[in-house]
Amino acid sequence: MNSESRNDVQKTRILVLLVIASNVLGNVSLSQGMHQVGRIISASPLDYLRAFANPWTLVGICVLAIWMLSDLALLSRADLSFVLPVTASAYVLVALGGHFLLHDHISWERWTGIVLITAGVVLAEETPARTTKGPPEHLL
Amino acid sequence: MKWLLVGIIALCTTLGDVLNTAGMKRQGEIEDLSLGSLARMIKRIFRNSLVLTGFAALTISFFALLSLLSITTVSFAVPATAVSYLLETLLAKYILGEDVRWRRWAAASLVACGVVLLSF
Known about the structure:
The complex is a heterodimer.
Chain A: H1 3-37, H2 45-52, H3 55-75, H4 80-87, H5 89-102, H6 108-125
Chain B: H1 2-27, H2 35-45, H3 49-71, H4 74-80, H5 83-94, H6 102-117
Helix pairs in contact in B: 1-3, 1-5, 5-6
């Protein structure tokens, strides 16, 4: 592997890490906020604006905006079928973070889930990040 | 109501991710990870109809997720959408033309099963 392609692989890895970290932090904040706000099933934007006034929800939305941009940057460099399983390690981090930081109980079913996701991430990591040359022509 | 929201989330997420991938491939690779490069990417996104349509689909999915999270727990909401991993991999192969071989199918299947098990 020459230095240019090593550099490319490294950029893709940095974006993968950024996508995972912002996904974990954004979803944890958003979930916390929505539980403080309470039940919303509404077509009225005002009800959602009320939810946005909650600081946890607001932080969650800001961090998820970073997640969205880093995900788009990653999708410009890598296949969707590579990005999806690789970034699923966010689920594992949330579960392990809950266990080790908040002392949440993890059942054997959840441990099995963690092992399966980790195996999926490892398998996807062994494939090249990008297999297409250009954009799909029939969608242009 | 909660299964209707799950269906909306799965369909809109799949559609949004496929359109965003196609749009970003059309726009071209982000060359470096500087703020300037990121700002140029954002500017070009506003003229990228595929990504804008993808955003619209993901926005619907996001509001459906907010509603779902307000009536149920994350441990129900997240696993219920695991089917979108398989759906998106299928569309990545046949719509986006990606080279999806057994490793990627196995990876998507393992992740989908793992996400479901995490809800227990």
